[in-house]
Amino acid sequence: MRRICEKLWFWCVINVAVFALLSFICPLHYEENDDIAMCMIANGVLSGSPDCHLVFINAVWGYLLQTLYSFTISVEWYTLLLALLHIFSFSFLTCLVVREHKPRYVTLIFLLLLYAFWARIIVCFQFTTTAGLLCAAGCYGLIQKDKSSLIIGAILVILASMIRFHAAALVGIVLAPFMIYSAFKNKKLWIIFFSLLCGVFLLHYA
After folding, report:
1. Could you read off the pLDDT tens digit of each residue along the chain, which spans 206 residues?
2. Residues 141/149, Cβ–Cβ less than 8 Å
């Protein structure tokens, strides 16, 4: 059973159910009007055709949404993609926590705190907290020893910077001491961190 609990797919299944349950109990709604406005820009309600220029969100992510809305507007892609990122990033985070092999009561307490936090940001859904969650999960993945976690972590950080650069940057600054400490223990992480940082800034300011 422990091996199953350390699988990412297991937590994805669990958290799809949790997300669905919370969304049913407390109907999903956006906390800020910014999300509503950007959703209307992306799906073409404001301009008459899907647009990738979403004010606070990187145009690369906006182009993905524009393409999807051009394919069909019957699906609310803006909300769906944010929800999927929410579920995957939180599943990745919980999976890594379980893999730490801490005493069971420590893991349980940590998971309860994480789920309480996640429930709060699901109820008040917005792109800013989604970016923050993505960045936090990504940073945690970057300090893991296995290559797959490093790759997933890097992808999540890049996605976080595209969805809300300033939110991702704030989370990155808060977690920077832990990242630096890990880099001193593993010199190769310096190269990874620097390359990722350059990529994020290039993507944002290009």
Report:
1. 556 677 888 999 999 999 999 888 887 778 778 898 999 999 988 888 899 888 889 999 999 999 999 998 889 999 999 999 999 999 999 999 988 877 888 889 999 999 999 998 888 889 999 999 999 999 999 999 889 999 999 999 999 999 999 999 999 999 999 999 998 988 889 999 999 999 999 888 86
2. yes
Greatest CA separation found in the chain? 56
C-alpha 195/C-alpha 116 separation (Å) is: 34
> Could you please report the per-residue DSSP string of 114-141?
HHHHHHHHHHSB-HHHHHHHHHHHHHHH
Query: Angle of helix 33-43 relative to helix 127-142, nearest 10 degrees?
Result: 90
Q: Which long-range contacts (CB under 8 A, 24 or more apart) does 7-11 make?
A: 7/95, 8/91, 8/92, 8/95, 10/95, 11/91, 11/92, 11/94, 11/95, 11/98
Rounded Cα–Cα distance for residues 127 and 174 (Å): 19
The type of residue at 18 is: V
Question: The whole model's pTM is what?
Answer: 0.92
